[in-house]
């Protein structure tokens, strides 16, 4: 008579997978099983299962809370973007457009630095706005910024100090991360740069849906108010 080989752990595991109701037929065995918990103390299988379910429930709750936080933040950004869009649409002159843009980004979006660089030299820039709204001199900008001025999606992340200085001038020293939004409408219009003191605020790879939308609206409005301003100047002449 051949000696019977002992059952391996893999065989037991395979058997239990094939018969998940095995312990329902032999509930007395559950009382004999003991598993160590995180503290090394032996607990019953039912207690261990309950602990695992509690852990999974906590993980699901944390994931749900994370999704709710993202949804609330998206709602907040949507409302702010909506208000800014309406303000841009209502502006009838370049000066009102610039002031509304800068004020909203600084006060409502809590941006630490704002710079609007324009190609159109016919658009008048008045008073203290010249600190944040300037004409682009492509040759004076660092070479690393040249690709950012081309039409395309916005770019977020950390930039070199010389690039931040070129974009934000005196404010560049305090900027740790930035979003660069190319403005294009039937040709290059300019670049909107938004800076933050927080190095993690504008992260590479972050969702740019809202700022891309802002860039599209702003480019069109700049083109429209620029043409209107030029027409008024021609009439006065």
From TrEMBL:
Keyword Methyltransferase: no
Coiled-coil residue spans: 43-70
Record keywords, A-Z: Coiled coil
InterPro entries: DUF484, GAF-like_dom_sf
Pfam families found in the cross-reference section: DUF484
Coiled coil recorded as keyword: yes
Highest taxon of source: Bacteria
PANTHER family: DUF484 DOMAIN-CONTAINING PROTEIN
Protein name: Phytochrome sensor protein
Organism: Alcanivorax dieselolei (strain DSM 16502 / CGMCC 1.3690 / MCCC 1A00001 / B-5) (Alloalcanivorax dieselolei)
